[in-house]
Amino acid sequence: MDQAKTHDAVACTQCGCVCDDLSVAVQHNRVVAVEGACDLARPWFLALGEDAAAGAPACLAGGAPVDRQAAVDAAAELLCAARSPVVCLAPQASVAASRAAVALADRLGAVVDVAGSRAASAAAL
Fold first, then answer.
1. Span 48-72, average pLDDT
2. How many CB atoms lie within 10 A of CB 45?
3. Is the per-residue pLDDT at 24 higher than 90?
4. How many helices (H) and strands (E) does the chain have?
5. Of 90, 94, 105, 121, whose CB has the highest number of CB atoms within 10 Å?
6. CB burial string 18-39: b at 16+ within 10 A, e below
7. How far is residue 120's CA from residue 88's CA, in Å, rounded to a whole number?
8. Which domain holds residue 102?
9. Which residues contact 89 (CB under 8 A, 6 or more apart)?
10. Structural domain count of the chain
């Protein structure tokens, strides 16, 4: 049986804090343990590799399994064809991910919405 390999001083990109003092144990391309992670990061790390381990396709387009490039191409087609695109910023997104989302919205001429907006809050009620 293969033993898990532990990686120290791992940086977490789950949020903008980018904590860089985690220890992550990986076995068979799956995270099996994580030390020093917060309640937000722990489940995120432990979910890494679950889809691959279950044999699930990494990407779908039109409900069919596709490779990554085909998925990116399909997403680009949908975004370019949108008449009133909206880019929603995830509350747990890293600063870099939020920056990329805003840049994409700018290129598309899209509206940017955030989780704390009136529209998003109304949907939660």
1. 77
2. 20
3. yes
4. 5, 7
5. 105
6. eeeebebbbeeeebeebebbee
7. 9
8. 59-124
9. 98, 101, 102, 112, 113, 114, 115
10. 2
